[in-house]
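This is your field. Please look over both lines of this record.
***
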Amino acid sequence: MPIAFKLNSHSTNAQFSEAHNARKIEPDYLLKKEHRLTNFHTQKITPENYTQKATKIYKEKVGQKLHPKTQLFHEAILVFGAKELEQLYPKYIDKNFLHKELHERAQAYAQHLHEKYGFEILSIHTHCDEGHITKSHPMATEKPHYNIHTHILLGNVNYSTGRTCRRKMTKKNLSEEQTKVAETFNQYGFERGIKDKKKVGLEHKEFKAVAQETAPLIQKIKILENNLSAANKEIEMLKKSTESHLSSKIQPDNNFLSVSTENEVLKAKIKEIEGQNKAFVEKMKELEGKLSQELTRKETRFLDPSLREKTKEDLISEIGSLRLKIEMLQEINGDYVAKVEQKVAENKARFDALTKIFLELPREVKRMGLKQAFEEFQNQSQKI
């Protein structure tokens, strides 16, 4: 497999992405700890600090405020061919030595992007802890197959001019970058993908099977996004409903039951979405393992008309983008779960407080009379 290059617009939360790339947030699809190799990180400026600096420079250089919809971040992704890596490993005492060299070459390539197009370099992360495991038979030793790749986070506003950089790049430039990446890593045996898309492809039966598996995965991403959106709406509805219950005239038996039921529903929703994510990630890992083997075979074109122009290089890049999408969804889902758990905790605290007041009501009736005790009960419940 040749080295694959992809330049993506970073429409997701750059802070979450940076935390993931720096492994401050650890995804659940990593190799087992005994198989993970050393990751390499170069951090120049955080997304938060870059946003502040770029906004200030844009106003100084251009004379107007930066538009809120300006795409501030782009990410270059380099994926190193497994076949070439397997040929290189025997030449090194430690695989980490090779990965360190690849990271340093990635730094050189990032500098090229800065010098040619003006992108500011925010961070470079080379991941060596992902991949899949194979066993020749059930009792055999596990053999890890590594998915070595580099994320280069780029700032789109140039410090010197205040202008955005990506808008000047053409399709020809992107094609030239495929060549430049191959040249940067040529000493390690990595080659550029074939330019003429019509000349190559996998065997049509193989590629058709892969395409049939990929399409449902894309659809599942859309479904998962819709589910998350619906769940967030449920949170807002729960919040409004709970506040309405607590500020209205209290009917303890019905309100307590409602709050408790809503909590249980939310807990069930959390488990359901976690299960969907886990199954989805497992499916993607299975597909990536299959692709890593099939993409080394003889090539031809897709039968599916919508995919007929795809090469293995395109497919690798798209699968890489799918993985990033899943990672972002997992991060968003984690945030969602935290919000729900916080809301459940708040509801439980309110429930406990109301229960305590309610249980004390008979004693207060005896002490101060029914009317005064009920008024006091209402005043206390409204404060919770």
The longest strand covers residues 120-127.
